[in-house]
Amino acid sequence: MKNKILLAVGAHPDDMEFGASGTVAKWTKEGATAYYVICTDGSRGSEDPKMTHEKLVKIRREEQEVAARVLGVKKVFFLNHTDTQLVADLVLKEEIAKIIRTVKPDIVITMDPTFYYTSKLDNADSGFVNHTDHRAAALATMDACFPLARDRLTFPHLEKQGLKPHKVTELWLTSFEKEDYLVDISDTFKTKIKALSLHKSQFIDFPAIEKRMTKRARRLGKKKGYKFAENFIRIKLP
Ligand SMILES: [Zn+2]
After folding, report:
1. How confident is the model over 42-51, as pLDDT tens digits?
2. Which of 2, 207, 221, 237: disulfide with 229, CB 3.0–4.6 Å?
3. Distance from the CA of 29 to the center of ligand 1, in angstroms?
4. Which residues have CB atoms below 5 A from the ion given as ligand 1?
5. For residue 15, how far is its CA from the centre of ligand 1 (angstroms)?
6. What torsion, rounded to 10 degrees, do the Cα atoms 90, 93, 98, 100 define?
């Protein structure tokens, strides 16, 4: 991955730590340059009765900065949309396309925009509804990669600012359900857990989260003979 550029786009601080940080840490270790985009301000993710919107935005931004540093991420772009209200509209798509034209990534990682819910997570008898912001961030990112960042006539004003069209080579989607492409994260699994643990405002019982993440990474890895793995849907763009 030497000389490759990677851009990971999540809706909230911590999204990419959950889904992709083992891979991000692996690639930065190998010499890639990584950037993050966080679409919302994370201002709704708290059950603490004393927490305020403003306080939480600041805390979560700092947590994301520190976690990104642990992973070797060069810069985090915060788009600051209101948490829980993210919409995959042209404003968001242009913001992401602009960053793509700025940092010129080879690979873009985001979530799966088609994933709405599961009734069986990791083959267990419980499920969840995928957060609306996750779907919006993922769809906007997918559209920004293709065709918006690629075609020069889509945002002529960006070109006037010197931001030339850019072709992303691969789009990777973090996925809970569709097992498509497994990355060996045995060497960076500890770093992943460390980065995730730095989102302190989000966890009442981090050991339980660590246990769940370990079980999942081990189960995925088993299929390929890796100790730990992360799973993606890998789309090579023509
Ligand atoms: Zn999230």
Report:
1. 999 888 888 8
2. 221
3. 25
4. 12, 15
5. 5
6. -160
Q: Which two tokens stand for residue 86?
A: 């993210």
Nearest to 19 by CA among 86, 110, 119: 110
Quote the pTM value: 0.96
Three-state SS at 1: coil
Domain count within the chain:
1
C-alpha torsion angle, residues 98, 168, 93, 160 (rounded to 10): 30
Q: Which residues span the domain enclosing 30?
A: 5-236
Do residues 27 and 6 make contact, with C-beta atoms less than 8 angstroms apart? yes
111 alpha carbon to ligand 1 midpoint, in Å?
A: 10
Q: What is the mean pLDDT of residues 18-39?
A: 98
Nearest to 95 by CA among 143, 63, 34: 143
Give me the sign of the Cα torsion angle 121, 134, 33, 232. Answer: positive
Q: What is the distance in A from the centroid of ligand 1 to the CA of 152?
A: 32
> Are the CB atoms for 224 and 182 separated by under 8 Å?
yes
CATH number of the domain where residue 195 is located: 3.40.50.10320
